[in-house]
Structure formats: structure tokens, C-alpha cells
Amino acid sequence: MDNNTLSFSGIEDGDCLTLTVDGSNSTRYQICAEDGPNSFISSSDVDMMWVLLAGFLVFFMQGGFTMLEAGMVKHTNVQNILFKNIMDACIGAISFFLFGYCLAYGDDSASNGFIGVNDVALSSGDYNGFFFQWAFAATAATIVSGSVAERCRLDAYFVYTLALTTWVYPVVVHWMWSSTGWLSPFNESPAVKGGVIDFAGSGVVHMVGGWSGLFGAYFLGPRDQRFAEDKSKVLDRQFKLGHNVAMQAMGTMILWFGWFGFNCGSTLAAAGAMDLASKVAVNTLMAAGSGGIVVACLERYVGGIWCVPAICNGVLAALVSVTAPCAVIKPAAAIPIGLVGGTLCWASSKLLEKMKIDDPLDAFSVHGVCGCWGVISIGIFAFDSDDIAFAGYSDDVVALSQGYRLGIQMLAVVAIIAWTVVNGLLIFGGLSFFKVLRVDLETEQLGLDWSEHGGSGYSMQMPYVEDQLDIPKALAGAFGVAAEGAIKHHVAAMSSVSQISAQTETNGAEVEMQKQE
């Protein structure tokens, strides 16, 4: 016996030994032999804990989306975007519990290739699967809120969020991920031989959110003066950079962090799957880095600046692109996938601007376009059958030729676009037809925070010195005589800011002249 190891022999079940260790304080230990399992936790419990932890990370992404969107809108709409993101989670929780999860998966014995049935209000008791899938559903709904930011009515928002989480998104989930879906690789006899691979949801989650957002942006029309040639410099700057770049950067980093739960957690198991999860994490990292680099370079050499919001979108675009293929490609392939994804995002954003379609968060470019690319990229870069088998897909999926696989991946893209376009036309087109989609011009110019949420999301006033609210002139009538003092204070404050700004510009000009001399 050495100083670190004790060994015993001849001890039977139920026998106990008493061990005394002499020292400054004598310590006694009783060691008993007992038959029982040689592990402390079952593999099924480990798998469920893994899925839960991944679901927590995916839900944490809601905080990232919230910060990103709040930083990109004007400061007069911050509360409105915060409200929408919080309500996405709230509404999505109830609607997906009652009907969405049923339509997405349902009872295999009663479901068909198009839709799931017979699991209303989670009667199956599949709590683990529901929680993880709800986090994905909330993500799809949040994507749309970025496309319709700063001019969408709240009642219209409630309608499209309910429709997305109860109907549009669950149907696509059923097609692609259920045991009976017509495109699913987990269906023993899908309508498409072998089924379509979308490991973590480039098509299922991001395409649905991105293409829905496109139709929301189209039917809403652009924000006031978004494409005007004579808009003020302040307005031009806010359309390009938002009001808080720091918040956008922090939101992006939170999303990047949560994305490891999004992709790695899609293994849906921990026991025996940690090598795969680790590979997925590496692929996710490689793609994100390459996407951020390529958009940074494009903005610098085409736009002339190192544009932080655009770089954030480049990272997110690459993450969306690698979400579908992350388990079936080699890490080296993740780099070109991210590079192409970032480039497509940047180019499609510029195209939308030329078409005068206003997407404040570039949600369509990031999620819609790059979601398509992610699904298609599997047919190009998933060329090694060992990688596909390593990801856990069946022999039927592994045996497909690369050309055939590329064809069915493109078929899935077309099917998801068609489904989302039809529903987008019905939902947003219907709301626009009945004139309940967009706020009026005065409300938009004033800011939704004042008209819907009681005031600005920010306050710089001294709480124990100033006794009047800093209320915009347009609300003076609504607040009565008390608003007059606030308006005077507002005007004085703006005058001071203008003087400081003018002085700063003068100093800047003097410095520039000195440099030239």
C-alpha cells in the first residue's frame, strides 16, 4: 500500500472494514462493500441534461437579439423593440405549448408527411424535447421583429408572432425533423429518398424567420426618409449605425456564445456524442471568424470604413450559414462556407437598398439568404460519407451520391421559400390590406416609445433636481400645462448640446488646419 492507494480483497457484499489513520488527529473511516450499479447517473439522464443546458443557451440568445436590435434602432424606439423581444418569448411559450409542438412532431402513428397531430398541450409528456424546440421557435419569431422594427403596429405584431409560432414554423419543423416528415432524414420512407440534412436549422429556423421578415418589410414600406437624398446627417448616421454600437457588439457576442448551444445541442445526446459536439463547436467557430473577416474587409475597401454593425452581421451570417452543415463537414470546409455566407449577406443587403426595401437589422440578408446558402452548402461540402455517418445519419442518407444530395438540398430550399412566401403574403398582405400593419407618420417620427410605452427608454435628467419630464412638443397637448416647463427644458438642453457640438466641430477644424500646416 502506498500513500495514495488502498486495495482490498476477500470482502463480500455487506462486509465492512474500519480504517484508522494515525496522525496529529486520529481519523477513522468505515468502508463497506455493496453490490449496485457502477455508475452514478444513467446515460439517458446525461442526454436530457445536455439538451436542457443547450436549450438554456439558445434561450440566452434572446438577450443577444434584444441588445442587437435595441442598439440598431433609434433611441426613440428602444422600449418598443425590448417589448417585442420579451413578448416573443412569452407568446411563443404559450402558443408553441398549446399547438405548435403538436404540429411540429405530434404522434407518429397519427401524423402524416405534412403535419403532426395528436399532441395538443404536450399530452405526450415530452418535456425535454419541447423545451429545446420552444427555444428555437422563439428565435424564429425574434428574427422577424428586426425586419419590421420602428414602424409596425403592436396589434399586427401580436398577429404575426402567433401565426409564426403556431403554424408557419411548426410545419417546416415537421417536414425536416420529425419521424414522418416528407423531407426528413429520420423518416424511414420519406417522399424524397434519403431525406434532407439540416442539422441545426439553417432552413428550418433561419429561412423561415428571414423570409417572413422580408415580406413584413416589403408590405410595411421603408421608414420615413430612409431612402431620401436630402435627409439630415444625424438621420443618415442612425440608419447606418443605429443609436448604440456598443450594445450591438455585445449582443452579437452573446449570440455567438449562445450559438454553440444552438449547434452543439442539436446532437440531442451527450453519451457517445461529445466528439461530434466538439467537432460542431470547431466548425461553428471557424465559420463565424471567416464571416466577420470578409465583411470587415468589404466594408473597409468598398465602403471606406471599418463598420462595426456590418461586421456583426458578417459574423451572424456565417453562423447561420454553418448551422445546417456543421455536423457533416470538415473544419476546413467551414471557412469557405463562412466566407461565402458573409459575402452573400453583404451583397444582398446592398441589393435590398437599391430595391428600396427597408430591413433595419438586415434580417433577410443574415437569416433568409444565408439560411438558403447553409442548406445548399451541404450538397457541395459534405463530400465525405464518413463525416455524414459520424453525425449519426442512417445508411440510406450516407449512401446518397453528392449530385443527388445537392439536388434534394435545393429542393428543400425551394419548398421552404414557397411555404414562407405564401404565408407571408397572407399574413402581412392581409394586415396591410386592412390597414392595421403600420403606425401613422406622426407616431413614427415621434417614436413608438412615447406613443406606446409611456416615454423614452433612456433618461439623463437629474431625478432630485428636475421636476418636469422631458416631453417632446408633439405630446404637449396630451400632457397639458405641465409639459410646458419640460419643453422649455428640452429646448435649452438641445441648445446647449448644439453649442457644444459646434465648438467641437470648430476645434476639429483647427486641429485639421494645424496638421496641414
Secondary-structure topology with pairs:
Elements (H helix, E strand, L loop, with lengths): L15 E6 L5 E6 L10 H30 L5 H27 L22 H21 L6 H24 L24 H19 L12 H9 L3 H20 L9 H30 L4 H16 L7 H24 L8 H19 L3 H6 L4 H4 L3 H32 L7 H6 L1 H5 L23 H4 L2 H35 L1
Antiparallel strand pairs: 1-2
Helix pairs in contact: 1-2, 1-3, 1-7, 2-3, 2-4, 3-4, 3-5, 4-5, 4-14, 5-11, 5-14, 7-8, 7-9, 8-9, 8-10, 9-10, 9-11, 10-11, 11-14
> What is the name of the CATH superfamily of the largest domain?
Ammonium transporter AmtB like domains
N/C terminus separation: 85 Å
Q: Just name the CATH architecture of the largest domain.
A: Orthogonal Bundle
Estimate nothing, just give the exact number of structural domains.
2
Helix amount: 55-70%
Outline the biggest β-sheet: 2 strands, antiparallel
What does the model show?
The protein is mainly α and 517 residues long. The protein folds into two domains: 46-433, Ammonium transporter AmtB like domains (Ammonium transporter fold, Orthogonal Bundle), CATH 1.10.3430; 473-516. It contains 18 helices and two strands. It has a two-stranded antiparallel ribbon with strand order 1-2. α5 (202-220) runs parallel beside α14 (402-433), α8 packs across α10 (331-354) and α10 runs antiparallel to α11 (363-381). It is globular and about 85 Å long.
